[in-house]
Design a protein that fits this description.
Main location (chain B): nucleus
Keywords (chain B): Nucleus, Transcription, Transcription regulation
Largest interface: A-B, 52 and 58 residues
Protein name (chain B): IBH1-like N-terminal domain-containing protein
Structural class of chain A: mainly alpha
Strand content of chain B: under 5%
Radius of gyration of chain B: 22 Å
Shape of chain B: flat
Distance between the termini of chain A: 53 Å
InterPro entries (chain B): bHLH_AtIBH1-like (IPR044549), HLH_DNA-bd_sf (IPR036638), IBH1-like (IPR044660), IBH1_N (IPR059002)
Oligomer: heterodimer
Helix content of chain A: over 70%
Organism (chain B): Salvia splendens
Largest sheet of chain B: none
Order of helices and strands of chain A: HHHH
Number of helices of chain B: 8
C-alpha cells in the first residue's frame, strides 16, 4: 500500500532522494547481526528499520547488564591501581 | 577529564577571541579547511583502546567519588560513565555524542545549582495551566498523523527516539546517526566485556599477583 513513491512525496520539500535513503538503509543493514549479512538484499527498508530498533534496544540492554557486572566487580576488586595498570598493559 | 570533554565538544570556546573571529570560516585549530565529518572507525583496535582508557579513568572516579550523597546506584553510575566516555571518544562529530555530552553538562550544572532547578520547577507549575491545552492538542495531532504515516516513517520516528539527540531530525540524518551509533555501541560492548573479563580473571588470582611480573 505505501509505495516508495509516496514516501518521496512526503519528503518532497527537502529533496531527499529514494536512492539516498536506500543507500543509508543498506548501510544500516550491513551493521545488523544476521546469519548472512551480504545475502539479504531482499529486506524491505521498513524491516531493516524494525530490526535496527530491536538491535539498538538489545545493545542498550547488553550495556546495562555489563554495567551491573562491572559495578559488582569493581566493588569487590581490592585495588584500583592494579586494575588500571593491568588493563593497560594487557591491551 | 572534564576539560578534555569540554574542549572536544565545544571547539568555539577559544581563549583567544580575536583569532576566532579572524578564522571564522575555518574550523577548529588547523588553518586548512577540514572535511566536515571524518568518520571514527569504531571497529579499529586503536579506537577501542582509546575508549577503554577513558572508561577506566571514568570508572576510577566512580569508585573514588561515590559518597552517601549520590542518589543513583552503582550500576547506574557505571553506565553513565560508559556512555560519557563513549561520547567523548566520538570527538563531537555526531549528534548523538554531542547530545550525551550536553545532557551530562546540564546535569552537572543543575546539581551544583539546585536553586535554579527548584525555580524551574516552580515556573513550570505556574505556567502549567497555560501550556497544557496546547500540549494536548499537539499530542492529538501527532496521534492522528501516526495512523496516516506509512510504516517506514513510523519506524523512522521510533528510531529517532532511540538515538540521543535525534528526536526532531529528518530521516537521512537519523539513519546516518544510527549507523555511527550502532558501530559505537558495538565497540562499547566489546570494550566493556573485555574489561569485565579482565577483572573477573584478575579477581580470581588477585592474591597470587603473578600477572604483573
Amino acid at each position: 500500500m505505501s509505495s516508495r513513491r509516496s514516501r518521496s512525496r512526503h519528503a518532497g520539500s527537502s529533496r531527499i532522494t529514494d536512492d539516498q535513503i536506500n543507500d543509508l538503509v543498506s548501510k544500516l543493514q550491513q551493521l545488523l547481526p544476521e546469519m548472512h549479512n551480504r545475502r539479504s538484499d531482499k529486506k524491505s527498508a521498513t524491516k531493516v528499520l524494525q530490526e535496527t530498533c530491536n538491535y539498538i534496544r538489545s545493545l542498550h540492554r547488553e550495556v546495562d547488564d555489563l554495567s551491573e557486572r562491572l559495578s559488582e566487580l569493581l566493588e569487590n576488586a581490592d585495588t584500583t591501581q592494579a586494575d588500571l595498570i593491568r588493563s593497560l598493559i594487557m591491551q | 577529564m572534564m576539560a578534555s570533554l569540554m574542549s572536544s565538544s565545544n571547539p568555539a570556546a577559544n581563549p583567544d577571541r580575536s583569532s576566532t573571529r579572524r578564522k571564522k570560516k575555518k574550523i577548529h585549530h588547523n588553518p586548512q579547511i577540514q572535511p566536515e565529518t571524518p568518520k571514527i572507525q569504531w571497529k579499529s583496535d586503536a579506537q577501542q583502546q582509546i575508549y577503554s582508557s577513558k572508561l577506566l579513568h571514568a570508572l576510577q572516579q566512580v569508585r573514588l567519588g561515590s559518597s552517601g550523597s549520590e542518589t543513583s546506584s552503582a550500576p547506574r553510575r557505571v553506565r553513565d560513565a560508559a556512555y560519557g566516555a563513549l561520547a567523548a571518544t566520538a570527538r563531537g562529530r555526531t549528534r548523538w555524542s554531542r547530545a550525551i555530552l550536553t545532557s551530562r553538562l546540564k546535569l552537572k550544572f543543575m546539581k551544583k545549582n539546585n536553586i535554579a532547578k527548584r525555580q524551574r520547577k516552580v515556573m513550570t507549575v505556574i505556567t502549567g495551566a497555560g501550556y497544557q491545552p496546547r500540549r494536548k492538542s499537539k499530542v492529538a495531532v501527532l496521534r492522528l498523523k501516526s495512523k496516516c504515516l506509512p510504516a517506514f516513517q513510523r519506524k523512522a520516528r521510533v528510531l529517532s527516539r532511540l538515538i540521543p539527540g535525534c528526536r526532531k531530525q529528518p530521516v537521512p540524518v537519523v539513519l546516518e546517526e544510527t549507523a555511527d551509533y550502532i558501530a559505537a555501541l558495538q565497540m562499547q560492548v566489546r570494550a566493556m566485556s573485555a574489561l569485565a573479563e579482565l577483572l573477573t580473571g584478575s579477581g580470581a588470582s588477585s592474591s597470587s599477583s603473578t600477572q604483573l611480573s
